[in-house]
Structures are given as structure tokens and as C-alpha cells.
Structure prediction request, 287 residues.
Amino acid sequence: MEILRTIADIQAYAKARKQEGKTIGLVPTMGALHEGHLTLMRAARAKCDIVIASVFVNPVQFGPNEDFDAYPRRFEADCQKLETVPVDAVFHPEPSEMYPEGFCTYVNVEGDITHKLCGAQRPGHFRGVATVVTKLMNLARADEAFFGQKDAQQVVVIRRFVADLNLNVHINMVPIVREESGLARSSRNQYLSAEEKDAALILSRSLRKAVTAYESGETDVATLKQIVIASLNTEPLARIDYVELYDFPGLNEVPRVTQASLLAIAVKIGKTRLIDNVILGKEAGEA
Ligand code: AMP
Prediction:
């Protein structure tokens, strides 16, 4: 596996692969890799000739009071995991390589899709995501890029700017990978104490309750949300940031679930903010 650290490195690597006529799949990550990330890598492996992973904790998508400094950085362990897929190259730049002095151009997706859900709690987050993903897709000359349903709103935002800016890359969404307990895998799970990790099971359990109700015929959005809220409130360590249900991928408010819809939650367990979601409706599971 090639380790690419500079803009010049990745540009030369991508150019050479393109000259060989290869298709390139890109999997952007912030590292501290787990089975969720590796599932994206395998999806890329299955679809593309060349797989480039990026491991970059992107400073621009973190707010001033968020966990940029504390975010786990485990590059050597990450490389070992990437070799098992295998991935062809990993791009691991310094922040100063991506944002040199004088950098002042951002991709800003305007409109409701960036203002609700995580956008409401994390102003500037999606501007940072859209900017770095645009740079990464461009540097890697990606034909395909792979993202997790875990961050379903991120997929909506990325598909929006890819369409708006006529970028020639196909965006793939891969289902959420969970631990056996149901807990959605996340690099931030490492922040949880044993007690908090138990408490965190309330996220997937609460979503399951809504899925069961939906499968039994309940389509009223207020009722489905209330089922989740009531369940989350049974866990003393859980503090709700949001519980929302929108159509998907539009992210519009709807009174009833009559089409694919995203039931998404953000919950603080202690100091750690966790997100999870399910897609309800006919097209659930479709990428
Ligand atoms: P991150 O390193 O947290 O920025 O995540 C990198 C990519 O992995 C994003 O597209 C995430 O949506 C995806 N991802 C993270 N956790 C999971 C998971 N449990 N299942 C599927 N995809 C995931």
C-alpha cells in the first residue's frame, strides 16, 4: 500500500492510475478505523480498480468547542487495517498541506439540508465537510466515492454539491455497520466508559422500537418520534440533542411516512455526542 502525504504525491499517483485506464474509488475517513470504515473500503474494492483511502482529521469541520484535539489518531494501526482489505493507497496529509497559508475558498451548501439535524447543532460543519470532500475527490480523480449511511445527512449534502457543481463522481451510500449489541460503530465510541457504552445501547434500541411500530402499521411521524423520545428518556445518562423524521433524501418535513424516510437521532452520553439513524419506507436499504 502506498502512503501519500503531499498534494503532489496524490496527484502523481492518481494521474498514473488514470493513464493506465483504471477506475478510482475514494473512501474519505478521519481515521481510528473500525469495521464500518472497512466495509466502505470493501465496497470500493468490489467496484473499482484502485481504492484510495484518506485518513485526515479535518480541522475545518470541527467547531471551536468540539473534539478536534482529542479526536483519536492511530495512523499505524489504521494502515494495518487498510492492508487487510487491501487498499492500494492511503492519503494522509498534514492540515497545513490541505489548508496552506492564504487558503480562503470553501464549498458552502446553502439551504435547509445543511441547517437541520447536525447542521443546527454544528454550524459550519457541513461547509468543512463539503470543502474537504471536494478537495479529496478532485485530488484522487475519483470516479466513485463511498460514504456511510451512519452520516446520512452528510450523504445528502455531498450528493447535492456533486450535482450542483457537476462533479463527475458517483456517490455510494453503504449501510450502517453495528456491533453485535446494536451500537453503531463509531470512532467516538472510544470516548465511552464501560458504563456509558452500556447506556449508549439506548440509541439503537429506541430506533428499533420505532421500526417495530412502523412495521406494525404506525406511520404518524409525531407518534414515531415520541416512541423514540420516550425510550431515550428511560436512560438516565442520555441527553437528547435531536430526534427527527424527514423524507429521504429530500429531508423535508412530512406528517406521515409514505415514502423512504430518515429517522435520525443525536444523543449525548456523558460528554460524547453519538448519532444513529434508520431509513423507514419502501426504499429502505437502497443506496
Ligand atoms: P469518519 O471517519 O467518522 O469521518 O467516517 C468516515 C466514513 O465512514 C463516513 O462516510 C462515515 O459515514 C462512515 N462510517 C462511520 N461509521 C460507520 C458505520 N458504523 N457504518 C457505516 N459507515 C460508517
